[in-house]
Design goal:
Layout (H helix, E strand, L loop, with lengths): L12 E4 L2 E9 L8 E6 L10 E2 L2 E2 L9 E4 L8 E2 H8 L4 H6 L5 E4 L2 E4 L3 H15 L2 E3 L5 E3 L5 H5 L5 E3 L8 H8 L7 E3 L23 E3 L7 H7 L8 E3 L20 E3 L22 E3 L27 E3 L8 H7 L7 E3 L12 H11 L5 E2 L2 E2 L2 H14 L1 H6 L13 H6 L3 H8 L15 H4 E7 L9 E6 L4 H12 L7 E5 L7 E3 L17 E5 L1
Parallel strand pairs: 7-11, 10-12, 12-13, 13-14, 14-15, 15-16, 16-17, 17-18, 18-19, 19-20, 22-26
Antiparallel strand pairs: 1-2, 2-3, 3-6, 4-5, 8-9, 20-21, 22-23, 24-25, 24-26
Helix pairs in contact: 8-9, 9-12
Length: 531
């Protein structure tokens, strides 16, 4: 007997053993007899060719060895939704058959059968299905909706469905299932490679109450998202990770209720793509992990001003990207409501080896931040970071035209571009006075140089060396210099200094953000290096 093949087999998803694939061809493959299925496998390692056999191309594959032919009897096209639910939750007919002896009772040698027990079992099964509010049929080989209205009759109270990693081939199938669930709030159809509408369709009320939708790894494009979005009028969270989305378009009159959007693991063309989604009025959380962006810019706002883009954004995740310039971190201060940031694993983070120094810089640069890389920022930590920042870059501010005298205070555009928050820090804490900055006005480099002796008290085999270092050089940069000399990471170095004015006393250089002048180091002093 020939194996059953669904009439709409082309494009259908299937399982063969544990391997998932999509039917790309149905027909004969001479010189062999019978029907074959040409399959493009999710895992190219399962395939043998690109759809070409003996010089004839039967179908196309994205991978040169992603396809092969199988007989229909090897293919599993899946089950309907309710069958999967019954199998998963132990509510199928087979289990009742196994327990069929429970319908009889033995009196001596006489067996009495209780008529109607099957119908009672069915009623109990129906009650249990109707009580289900949250259903997960992940990896249950769901391929189609089943008989019309059967889901609504059987599972009337479902609100949350996990349909991830099944055999769903099209958004039409998802709609057929959801149309029978009146109060659907959460839907996860991730890891189903499916087709989506390529043109606008009449808006229905199927997803009118849907708040959370996960479409990760479904191969959906942003254009298809926008075509489907009119049917999601109440959507608050949308997960679209790993879909090869590269270009975004502005959502006009759709997704206006969205509070969270996850575009992680899509290689966006550039950071300017974000401008396309910047006017979603309620968007509070934007997750952009590993999206390939190298810069962030809000061109509508100048230094120290707030952008009109992302008006409600509170949380932003840009970790594991290619952001290499501090200017992108500066730009984030333009977001009017930003409170939480995740930004680790970006090249800009490698510019400072000390993680505490790095954290202080980011906190000082983004005024409204309350949580950084999932760690809360206390008021004392913010104050310390801002005061240190104000002091460390005080000399640069003076050199660029900054002054305690408001009439003379005209810092250059270059300084403001590098330190856009500096004027607001001066307003908050007062402008740094020249005496506070150890009297080091912008003089010639020669006049700012300190002649210091560097000693290694625990490694006497190393001879002391004399170095001329700028007084404004931070401890972090001194450690960088020592790394080049010693090949020992700065995080392992402990620095202190001795002065002829402080006989017998050693002062620890314990803050990597502080410049040498902060510690009142003078010409002729000795820096002690330990590790």
């Amino acid at each position: 007997m020939a194996a059953w093949v669904p009439p709409d087999a082309l494009g259908r998803r299937l399982l063969c053993g544990r391997e998932y694939g999509t039917v790309r061809y149905l027909g004969s493959v001479p010189p062999t007899a019978g029907i074959w299925l040409g399959v493009e496998w999710d895992d190219p390692q399962r395939g043998k060719h690109d759809g070409t056999y003996e010089g004839t191309q039967y179908f196309k594959c994205r991978h040169p060895k992603g396809g092969s032919f199988i007989r229909p009897n090897k293919a599993n096209f899946g089950v309907d939704f309710l069958t999967a639910v019954r199998n998963r939750y132990g509510l199928n007919d087979e289990q009742d058959v196994q327990h069929g002896t429970e319908n009889t009772l033995v009196f001596g040698k006489k067996t009495v059968e209780f008529v109607g027990m099957d119908s009672i079992a069915e009623q109990q099964r129906q009650v249990r299905l109707n009580q289900l509010v949250e259903i997960s049929v992940r990896e249950c080989a769901v391929g189609h909706a089943g008989q019309k209205e059967e889901i609504s009759r059987t599972c009337a109270n479902i609100r949350h469905i996990n349909l991830s990693k099944n055999l769903i081939s099209s958004w039409e199938t998802v709609t057929a299932i959801a149309s029978q669930v009146q109060n659907l709030e959460t839907l996860n159809v991730s890891e189903n490679k499916m087709t989506f509408p390529s043109a606008s369709t009449p808006v229905s009320s199927v997803f009118s109450k849907l708040r959370i939708l996960a479409l990760n790894q479904t191969e959906i494009t942003w254009a298809e998202v926008l075509l489907c979005a009119p049917g999601w009028p109440a959507l608050e969270e949308l997960y679209l990770t790993s879909n090869n989305i590269t270009v975004l378009e502005r959502p006009d009159n759709v997704l206006q209720t969205l509070k969270l959007l996850d575009l992680s693991d899509n290689q966006l063309l550039d950071g300017n793509q974000l401008h396309q989604i910047a006017h979603l009025p309620r968007l509070e959380q934007l997750i952009l992990r590993n999206t390939g962006i190298s810069s962030i810019h809000f061109p509508d706002a100048g230094f120290g001003c707030k952008t009109k883009m992302f008006p409600s954004l509170k949380g932003l995740a840009v970790n594991s990207n290619k952001i290499s310039q501090w200017s992108s971190i500066n730009e984030l201060d333009k977001l009017p409501r930003l409170r939480s940031l995740q930004c680790h694993n970006n090249p800009v983070m490698d510019t400072e080896k000390n993680p505490e120094t790095l954290r202080q810089l980011i906190i000082a640069k983004i005024g409204g931040l309350e949580v950084l890389n999932k760690s809360e920022i206390s008021p004392d930590e913010r104050k310390g970071a801002e005061l240190d920042y104000r002091k460390i870059f005080g000399n640069d501010w003076l050199a660029a035209g900054g002054s305690c005298d408001p009439e003379k205070n005209k810092p250059s555009e270059e300084f403001l571009a590098a330190h856009p928050r500096y004027p607001s820090l001066c307003l908050k804490y007062g402008a740094p006075e020249e005496g506070e900055l150890k009297g080091l006005q912008p003089l010639t480099l020669k006049n700012q140089l300190l002649t210091l002796t560097i000693k290694y008290p625990e490694n006497p085999e190393r001879k002391p060396v004399e170095k001329k270092l700028p007084a404004s050089m931070t401890i972090q940069r001194v450690k960088g210099l020592l790394y080049r000399l010693l090949k020992i990471p700065g995080s392992e170095l402990k620095l202190s200094y001795e002065s002829s004015k402080l006989e017998g006393k050693e002062v620890e250089l314990d803050n990597d953000l502080k410049p040498l002048q902060f510690y009142s180091i003078e010409n002729g002093d000795c820096v002690l290096v330990r590790w």
